[in-house]
């Protein structure tokens, strides 16, 4: 009975240590992500033209991806382009 008690105490202790390590890691990751968000926000506020260019570029890329997907996917668009090039 005493051996089982030692094993269960060891498991609880190791589990507690693991939970503390995970909590510290999550806290550290949260601090880093918060700092990254603050940095991105301050850059965006200080460089409005660059921010507009990134937003516009993202919109254009999203529109192109949407159009390709709507046309049947990349392989279908590629086949159409190859047909046009070989036909010309």
In terms of topology, how is this protein built?
Elements: H1 2-46, H2 48-70, H3 74-87
Characterization of this structure:
This protein has 88 residues and is mostly helical. It has two domains: 1-46; 48-88. 93% of the residues lie in helices and 0% in strands. The protein has three helices and no strands. It is elongated and about 85 Å long. The chain starts with a helix and ends with a helix. The model has no long low-confidence stretch (mean pLDDT 88).
What brief labels describe this structure?
88 residues; mainly alpha; 2 domains; 3 helices; elongated
Q: Gist?
A:
93% of the residues lie in helices and 0% in strands. By secondary structure, the protein is mainly alpha-helical.
Mean pLDDT: 88
- Residue runs with pLDDT of under 50 for 5 or more positions: none
What overall geometry do the principal axes of the alpha carbons give? elongated
Classify the secondary structure makeup into a structural class: mainly alpha
Helix and strand element order: HHH
Rg, nearest Å? 27 Å
Approximate strand percentage = under 5%
Q: Count the DSSP helices.
A: 3
Distance between the termini: 86 Å
Give the total of domains: 2
Q: How much helix, percentage-wise, in residues?
A: over 70%
Main beta-sheet annotation: none
What is the number of beta strands? 0
